[in-house]
Amino acid sequence: MRLQTVSVLLLIATLSQPVFARNILNEQTDAATARDAVGDAMSKLTDLEQRIKSQEALVAQEQAKLKQYQSDKAQTEKDLETKKAIFEQKSKVLDDAWKQRNDY
Question: Per-residue pLDDT averaged across 17-32, rounded?
Fold first, then answer.
């Protein structure tokens, strides 16, 4: 008996539903547009994140080059000073040799 009562209640509930369902085309369109906007924003964010990562890698590479150039410059300046000192010493020796030669 209970099963029949439940069946009757379900049949009444089903038949009491409106014959025509509400038109939800506008809501479907709005939801699809919003979903597409989210997808576009996610794509843009991913693209920007990749560009940032690439730029950071490039900056790091350029900073490493700069550091190496600065190190090379410092070493070259030391070498220059050493070579200047050697040149001055050799020039003095040459001047003394010319002086001695001319004194004879």
Answer: 81
